[in-house]
Amino acid sequence: MKKYLFALLFLTGVQLSAQDVRMDAFITELMGKMTLEEKLGQLNLPASGDITTGTASSSNIAEKIKEGKVGGLFNIKSAEKIRDVQKIAMEQSRLKIPLIFGMDVIHGYQTMFPIPLGMSCSWDMELMERSARIAAQEASADGINWTFSPMVDISRDPRWGRVSEGSGEDPYLGSQIAKAMVKGYQGDDLRKNNTIMACVKHFALYGAPEAGRDYNTTDMSRIRMYNEYFPPYKAAVEAGVGSVMTSFNEIDGIPATANKWLMTDLLRKDWGFNGFVVTDYTAILEMVDHGLGNLKDVSALALKAGTDMDMVADGFLNTLKESLEEGKVTQQEIDQAVRRILEAKYKLGLFEDPYRYCDLNRAKTEVFTPENRRKAREIAAQTFVLLKNDKQTLPLQEKGTIALIGPLADNRENMPGTWSVAADFPKSVSLLDGMKKAVGNRAKIVYAKGTNVVSDPQLDARISIFGKPTKWDNRPQKEMIAEAVAVARKADVIVAAVGESAEMSGEASSRSDINLPENQRELLEALLATGKPVVMVMFTGRPLSISWEKAHVPAILNVWFAGTEAGDAIADVLLGKVNPSGKLSTTFPQNVGQVPLYYNHKNTGRPLPDGTWFQKFRSNYLDVSNDPLFPFGFGLSYTTFDYKNLKLSDSGLTAGGKLTVSVEVTNSGNYDGAEVVQLYLRDMVGSVTRPVKELKGFRKVFLKKGETRTVEFTLTENDLRFYNSDLQFVSEPGDFRVFVGTSSANTLEAGFVLK
Ligand code: BGC
Q1: 521 and 564 part of one domain
Q2: Are the C-beta atoms of residues 350 and 100 closer than 8 Å to each other?
Q3: Enclosing domain of residue 388
Q4: Where are the alpha helices (DSSP H) in 368-517?
Q5: Which residues contact 58 (CB under 8 A, 6 or more apart)?
Q6: How much is the pTM?
Q7: How many domains does the chain have?
């Protein structure tokens, strides 16, 4: 059999490295000793349950581990606990196969970085990679060797709570981020004890649920999947991601977890993925509710589709034996899945040393270190997006009295944001902490809560979860606002810390209304009525429709959820120590009725002429313009940047040739600062309709005040390719427009021809 495999690989031209050959031989030998039950055990990924330090051997899971019925565990942390669990596998199970330990290390471990949507607004790939590297360093020091990240689901729907966990709406930016994150987690050698295996998720199209409702049906054309939604998953595969997680949703009527076209034909055959596929939480069991049969039926479907590991559903463990006996699955299908999981463990070096990640001394010096926190603070400040700054309200002067008002000003627990399972919430820096520390005795900070996050106590209970209370205040709204106004009147400037709380976005946190909660709007009105300058610091995990706020509040800084160092980082930006440079990775709509609204849309046959608001029989609305509130790529700075002299090295491009696009960017304002220079293309005529603009390059440049820099991009024919109606990746000769500028809506323009 083995000989046959090698011969086949030889004939198909697949090159095996010496390490692959060794791995293959090792696993073949091991599998030769495994019973069917032990094989099914490797495919089983239960949750860790309630193991506390010292209780591993008496926990419910211990018996299963001894019997060889567990392949790995997840969401258990601490090197000591993990070592104890690993010991059960290594000392008390028959074949002593090490377990793999996974966790949702999504945007940092204990040192938390901004939520992924925030991180993506840095447009800084070196920084993205560094954040993943630090997360891997900390997680691995605490026993973990596998993370369920990066989450690369493109989403154009801010109602969906999980937009907070992804990189926004753009396939190109999303692909760059996917690569950087995989590299950051996995490094160049997975066997090192400070690198961990990444798991790209949720494959696929999870970010496109109907009506933005989590777990809802997804339905889209293949051509859209290939051009607009698949690129980041593919980029992660190309970057060598070790594992892939299935998504909950259906695709063409078949849930992803049982979708053979997706998991085998596309992922493995077309893209060449050679790691393992794990389901999302209970995704196999959920196919019973999807209506695909009982647990036995759906488990068999999942395995046959190419899914290797079952998270929590116990379907593989408990039903595949019977399915094998009945001929519904084959031994080969089971063996293939087992092999892929054993390979992952081999690649992580666990067979060499199962305790590789269980050094009991590392966590003390490698987790939540002052150095990591310093970097997290620095990184967080790069993710804030300055949405408005009339009359240079910002930066604030460090003098007089600053009133800090709002339900999110004094809430450490909410700063890390959603999916921050390893964070020690009370250790986060709130905005109040950060501002007080920053101004010292040079200015006075006064504070009032002003209002609750939301006015409905039932809604408040739903969002005060996972150790992140909103700290509900029982006083009537009127009384709280009156107190806030009295405090604000004594100040020179008001900073209003408003928005969503951390768990208003994230999993199963969809919203049908994406305005600022009404009670917070009332607070803003009262603060503005004092006549003092108001700066709105907006916490959010999604684009919010803040048309009223944009019209009335002089300055708006969007800070997402910036991680454990949030308060310090926000203070750095508010006080001008750091000049904001974040750019939106997702469009902000004027109202929820415009959703989905995204910059790289098609033109339609009845586009609205530029600069117009409404025309009968054109594609538009009666009651709102087509414009976004803030476009993709938008973000202000304390300084200004001027663009001029957009030049192309040639008027034409040939296959195999190169075209240089250059532009002069000048920092024309009064502060040093960074600018994200963006390049977009439009393919004017295609065999299929093409988007009005597509991001194809960006550079983040730091310019001293007064400095001018020529920024260059190189385009090749490959950049002009797309999937045509036969799903071939091609370019088509003809006219192209190129746009370079400060956002998707503010660019210089030129043209060239692809010959
Ligand atoms: C989420 C995944 C996560 C998994 C494990 C699921 O509910 O959808 O993103 O990785 O749980 O915690």
Answers
A1: yes
A2: yes
A3: 380-594
A4: 370-381, 431-439, 457-463, 477-489
A5: none
A6: 0.97
A7: 3
CATH code, 408: 3.40.50.1700
Contact yes or no for 749/734 (Cβ under 8 A): no
Based on the fold, state whether residues 726 and 661 are members of the same structural domain.
yes
Residue (of 645, 615, 634, 611) closest to 748 by Cα position:
645
- Whether residues 393 and 320 share a domain: the answer is no
- The CATH number assigned to the domain holding 181 equals 3.20.20.300
In 449-531, beta strands by DSSP E: 493-499
Is 625 among the domain residues? no
Give ∠ CA 751-753-755 in degrees, rounded to 5: 170
- Our mutation pick for probing the ligand 1 site, out of 75, 115, 148, counting the most ligand atoms within 8 A of Cβ, is 148
Ligand 1 pocket list (CB less than 6 A): 75, 104, 148, 201, 280-281, 507
Query: What number is the average pLDDT over the span 482-506?
Result: 98
For residue 281, report the distance from its CA to the centre of ligand 1, in Å: 6
Query: What is the mean predicted confidence (pLDDT) over 205-234?
Result: 98
Over range 336-362, report the average pLDDT.
Answer: 98
Q: What is the CATH number of the domain that holds 649?
A: 2.60.40.10
The pLDDT-based confidence of 1 (bands split at 50, 70, 90) is very low
Q: Which of 280, 284, 286 to mutate to test the pocket of ligand 1 (most atoms within 8 A of CB)?
A: 280
Q: Which residues contact 637 (CB under 8 A, 6 or more apart)?
A: 386, 579, 580, 581, 669, 671, 673, 674, 675
Give the residue, by CA position, lying nearest to ligand 1 atom 7: 281
Phi, psi for 118 (deg, rounded to 5): -65, -50
* Nearest Cα residue to atom 5 of ligand 1: 281
Atom 8, ligand 1: residue with shortest CA distance: 280
* Tens-place pLDDT, residues 82-141: 999 999 999 999 999 999 999 999 999 999 999 999 999 999 999 999 999 999 999 999
Selection from 338, 360, 354 nearest residue 88 by Cα: 354
- Rounded to a whole number of angstroms, the CA Rg of the chain reads 27
Same domain assignment for residues 571 and 686: no
In a domain, 687, yes or no: yes
Is residue 622 in a domain? no
Q: Do 127 and 247 reside in the same domain of the chain?
A: yes
**Res. 611 pLDDT band, cuts 50 70 90:** confident
Final residue in a domain of this structure, among 363, 393, 428: 363
Q: Whose CA is nearest to atom 11 of ligand 1?
A: 281
Answer whether residue 8 shows pLDDT above 60.
no
Of the chain, the percentage scoring pLDDT greater than 90 comes to 95
- Contact in structure between 345 and 242 (CB atoms under 8 Å): no
Which uninterrupted H or E stretch holds 129?
helix 125-141
Q: Are residues 296 and 352 in the same domain?
A: yes
Give CA angle at 186 (182, 189), nearest 5°. Answer: 140
> Ligand 1 center to residue 582 CA distance, Å?
28
286 CA from centroid of ligand 1 (Å): 14
Q: Is 280 designated active site? A: yes
Distances (CA, A) of 444 to 165, 191, 531, 645: 36, 52, 19, 47
Shared domain check, 99 and 46: yes
Give the nearest ligand 1 atom to 202 CA: 9
**C-alpha 106 – ligand 1 centre gap (Å):** 10
**Domain membership flag for residue 612:** no
Using CA atoms, how far residue 726 sits from 223, 226, 274, 593, 730, in Å, is 8, 11, 26, 33, 10
- Atom from ligand 1 closest to the CA of residue 151: 9
Residue nearest (by alpha carbon) to ligand 1 atom 4: 281
Q: Residues 545, 664: one domain?
A: no
Ligand 1 centroid–CA 245 distance in Å is 9
pLDDT tens digit string along 255-312?
999 999 999 999 999 999 999 999 999 999 999 999 999 999 999 999 999 999 999 9
Give me the catalytic one of 104, 153, 280, 568. 280
**Protein residue closest via CA to atom 12 of ligand 1:** 104
Domain boundary pick from 538, 562, 594: 594
